């Protein structure tokens, strides 16, 4: 006899972003048996977003039961500052969360043990346990998209820090005389090397709006201006990763997010630039994230399963 | 009946530096019942240093027994790259260690369970458990002396990283156009804000050799050049601490080493400069180390006691 009632056990998993929520039913072995997406609707305010999260989670649990599955837990990943120990979404710039006790709200609504995690940390958890960092003891997962953030995962557990704010790699200063970051400081890594910064910089210089992926393509095709913007971003990213390696000393860095889709156009020059910056330090292995969009849901499910133990 | 034979139990503790070894007999409650110092004699080469370490440790164990105490373990802290799990001194620039299995050597010679740790990490362990970081879950210990290095201590345990090289705060780049560091990179924090860098910079500009403490004194007395050098160091150190906070997110930063002896002349402007750099991050509490020179021996003893459990 086991604790789980009849039916294949699944975790209700939600990865809540600024614009959309990725949702899934995840088996304990990491298999996704059902997936759906919903708009976050952040423009309606944080209370409405919380209502949507709870409704969607309840709907997923109901769907699981209707399909003969047994929901055993719920895992939710959200952006911003997250106090994982207390289960509170402390602060989020794009959704407006301010001290929302989301774990308790979901646990009560669903009647299931619930875990609340930080979006990038749950992504890092999934990549380190099921993805590109599998079998590695010390992993840094770096998400380079609209912003830049990292998750330091040691022994399969992501460090949250004292206030749920560890891993803010996007907000280390790499260019003291660089452009001002959204956070207010000049020269943050995110202001130079995020996918949005790359697109913005090219647009500023060329007058033509391009995405980071298009800048990478043009740079590869020999466009000089695109090449310069891409090189600046790669050099800044290498500076950021060198700093992270000096402080964390990991074996593998898993790079995910929009910028990583540039593939060899990113990884070849980034590896070379990082190698140049290593003096007495061991060079980490640089690899692309393997789980794509699903990492957040998988990681939220892993966090929920960890809490069951 | 307990595991310990008759007599008050003590740990044989050694803190091996580039020039001197601090040695002590430490009770499990952290009380130092005997202390002595020996020259490291690094100029004789690493094999001779290892011999000295083993002789001194054996002598301390003998002294303990002669005094009616019972040596129960041995703890050794060394600089450089240290693989704590394997008990190997992997690499050290100032002593010349290359893959020395020091834990095994000492355990065999003394017949005592032995732990090998990194000098700054054991210092951090002691400060976080017995010193200025007592009662705090997330501590960053930063030693600012000849060099700069840090130990990230969470829940009373110092992170070593994948290769024993975590916490190298001195080797993050804070001034891309700054002076070249001993490690080979330009603008490392250590090349600008270490006690030796402060003395060197003033000497370069003024032609008069001064120590960092003297620079701080002169700056406080209104000497303009000293004020400039001191400000540059404080600003660079604040940049380094801001980066560390973005990545680690600690509650308290404990600053030790020679520079911390400047007291309010360091801490007042450093706190202000760090506060300016915090945007959405929580500001850590900045405090001076409390254990002084004894931190290394105390931490080596704590590490040895941890291994007994």
TrEMBL record, chains A, B:
Keywords: Kinase, Transferase
Superkingdom per UniProt: Bacteria
GO molecular function: kinase activity
Gene3D superfamilies per record: 3.30.420.40
InterPro entries: ATPase_NBD, ROK
This protein's record includes keyword Kinase: yes
Membership in a protein family: Belongs to the ROK (NagC/XylR) family.
PANTHER family according to UniProt: BIFUNCTIONAL UDP-N-ACETYLGLUCOSAMINE 2-EPIMERASE_N-ACETYLMANNOSAMINE KINASE, ROK (REPRESSOR, ORF, KINASE) FAMILY
Name under which the protein is recorded: Glucokinase
Lineage of the organism: Bacteria, Bacillati, Actinomycetota, Actinomycetes, Micromonosporales
């Amino acid at each position: 006899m086991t604790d789980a009632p009849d039916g294949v056990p699944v975790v209700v998993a939600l990865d809540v972003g600024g614009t959309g929520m990725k949702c899934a039913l995840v088996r304990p072995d990491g298999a996704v048996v059902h997936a759906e997406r919903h708009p976050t609707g952040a423009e309606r305010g944080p209370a409405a977003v919380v209502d949507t999260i709870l409704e969607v989670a309840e709907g997923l649990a109901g769907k699981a039961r209707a399909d003969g599955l047994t929901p055993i837990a719920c895992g939710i990943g959200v952006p911003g500052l997250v106090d994982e120990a207390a289960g509170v979404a402390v602060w989020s710039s794009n959704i407006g969360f301010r001290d929302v006790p989301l774990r308790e709200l979901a646990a009560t609504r669903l009647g299931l043990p619930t875990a609340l995690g930080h979006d990038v940390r749950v992504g890092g958890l999934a990549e380190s346990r099921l993805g590109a960092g599998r079998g590695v003891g010390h992993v840094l997962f770096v998400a380079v998209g609209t912003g830049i953030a990292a998750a330091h995962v040691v022994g399969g557990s992501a460090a949250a820090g004292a206030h749920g704010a560890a891993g803010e790699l996007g907000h280390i200063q790499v260019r003291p005389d660089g452009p001002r970051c959204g956070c207010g400081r000049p020269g943050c890594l995110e202001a130079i090397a995020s996918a949005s910064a790359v697109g913005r910089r090219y647009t500023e210089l060329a007058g033509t709006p391009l995405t980071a992926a298009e800048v990478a393509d043009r740079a590869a095709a020999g466009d000089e201006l695109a090449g310069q913007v891409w090189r600046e971003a790669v050099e800044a990213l290498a500076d950021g990763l060198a700093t992270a390696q000096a402080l964390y000393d990991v074996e593998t860095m898993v790079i995910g997010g929009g910028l990583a889709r540039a593939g060899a156009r990113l990884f070849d020059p980034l590896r070379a630039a990082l190698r140049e910056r290593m003096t007495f330090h061991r060079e980490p292995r640089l690899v692309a994230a393997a789980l794509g969009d699903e990492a957040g849901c998988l990681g939220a499910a892993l966090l929920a399963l960890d809490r069951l133990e």
